[in-house]
Amino acid sequence: MKHFTSSDPRALIIGAGVAGLTTARCLQEQGFGVTVIADHFQSATTSAVAGALWEWPPAVYGFHEKQPEQALLAEQRWCVESYKRFQTLALKEGTGIYWRPVIFYLGAPAAEDPRELRKLRELRQHVRGFRHDAELTARPGINVRSAFVDAYTYETPLIETDVYMAWLLGEVLGHGGTVEGRRVYGPLAAAAPALRDVYRADIVVNCTGLGARGLSEDDVAPVRVAWLIVENDGRSFPKVTTAHCSSQLDSATGGNFLFIAPRGRDRLILGGIAQPEHWSTNLGIQRDSISELIWRQCMQFMPCLANAKICGNAELRVGLHPFRRAGVRVEREIGDTVVHNYGHGGSGVTLSWGCARDAARLAREAIAGTSGQLALPLALASG
Predict the structure, then answer these.
(1) Residue finishing a domain among 321, 340, 357
(2) Count of domains observed in the chain
(3) Same domain, 270 and 334
(4) Which structural domain, as residue segments, surrounds residue 117?
(5) Per-residue confidence of the chain (383 residues) as pLDDT tens digits?
(6) DSSP letters of 258-305?
(7) Does residue 275 belong to any structural domain of this protein?
(8) 3-state class of 181 per DSSP?
(9) What is the dihedral of CA 134, 138, 141, 143, to 10 degrees?
(10) Does residue 151 share a domain with residue 236?
(11) Residues 6+ apart with CB under 8 A from 34
(12) Are residues 146 and 235 in the same domain?
């Protein structure tokens, strides 16, 4: 553990989700002492309600508008950085990171969709075990009457968020960081000078997710997502060890996207529902019908899930993912010591280490008095 001194630069991070804690850790690696303030921690954060399956942008699940090309290239660079970091972290005990195969299903041949074909050509360069094969749609245990005609697979990190977020917080604290429960009221441009004085911070980093709508007066909007958690111990149905995903569901299923993914050693996440512009996690009288819809659309794809048993009080998890229509924001305020890292939508875990590393670099450049401009995105071949 490093013991920081008064001569070390100090950073104040606002937000304790995966973006905030990962940024805090990267700042520590850059020699900063850190304090994290937030009004929600651990299980109360949106990060704890994430599907947490690494995938190539644009993500399958959630709500998406067409992104600017520059924003998409930046996300791809960030997710490559995260993939490499998760490979290293998976070797450590207690991180909650598991490597599993995932299969993505398509409703039409990839060769007939230029965007899908481009995605496959980019993806295969950066992951382990990539294979594009229509025969993947005929795996044992899958409903042969499904509408999927093409598929691809690769090995991916699947994050057990409850364990991972606790480990990540422990890393920040174990390396000399401090945390404090506090809500910051915006706009941040006005609040930042006082925050720097109170916490003796050289830099303020905004990792507030949906809260950036008010703090930064930015166009960040919520998409409400819901997941069912079921037992996956091999007793009620054969244990599922491969993740299955698609944004293209048979019209008979209803719902928004298919998501079946192992969680930890003995749980399975079923999804999913994505509802743009819903501001509450309280489903009210819709709770039972949404649970039923998720379960039925997954069961129609994988019939053995008819025997699934809902797990205790956490059977349905609901969260609000922060989407920014202009794409993820990782940049430094011109002429000020404020860095932003927010707007990750449904890809917060996927992009976490790449975004955090850039945010930490911008913070270091701000302290050094350099330009603070991000480098151009890493060239990612698409052909």
Answers:
(1) 321
(2) 2
(3) no
(4) 89-157+222-321
(5) 555 555 689 999 999 999 999 999 999 999 999 999 999 887 778 787 788 899 998 876 544 455 677 888 999 999 999 999 999 999 999 999 999 999 999 989 999 999 889 999 999 999 999 999 999 998 888 886 678 899 999 999 999 999 999 999 999 999 999 999 999 987 898 899 999 999 999 999 999 999 999 998 899 999 888 999 999 999 999 999 999 998 865 433 444 789 999 999 999 999 888 888 888 888 888 888 888 889 988 999 999 999 887 765 448 889 899 999 888 999 998 667 899 999 999 899 999 999 999 999 999 999 887 544 443 333 333 32
(6) EEEEEETTTEEEEEEEEEET---S--GGGHHHHHHHHHHHHHHHSGGG
(7) yes
(8) strand
(9) 100
(10) yes
(11) 10, 11, 12, 13, 24, 27, 28, 172, 176, 177, 178
(12) yes
- Rounded to whole angstroms, what are the CA distances from 160 to 263, 347, 364? 6, 15, 31
215 and 229 within one domain: no
Peptide bond before 157: cis, by omega within 30 degrees of 0?
Answer: no
Per-residue model confidence as pLDDT tens digits over 227-254: 999 999 999 999 999 999 988 654 334 4
Beginning with the edge strand found earlier in the chain, give each strand of the sheet holding 267-276 in spatial order: 128-132, 150-159, 97-106, 243-246, 258-263, 267-276, 220-231, 316-324
Residue 76 maps to a domain: no
Statement to judge: residues 110 and 238 lie in one domain = yes
Q: Which residues, 6 or more positions from 97, have their beta carbon under 8 angstroms from its beta carbon?
A: 86, 89, 90, 157, 158, 159, 160, 164
Residue 68 belongs to some domain of the structure: no
**What CA–CA distance (Å, rounded) separates 243 from 247?**
14
CB-based contact 226:290 (threshold 8 Å): yes
- DSSP symbol at 140: T
Helix, strand or coil for residue 376? coil
Cα distance between residue 291 and residue 273, in whole Å: 9
* Residues 23/207, Cβ–Cβ less than 8 Å: yes
* CATH (domain of 143): 3.30.9.10
Looking at residue 213, which CATH number applies to its domain?
3.40.50.720
The SS3 of residue 170 is: helix
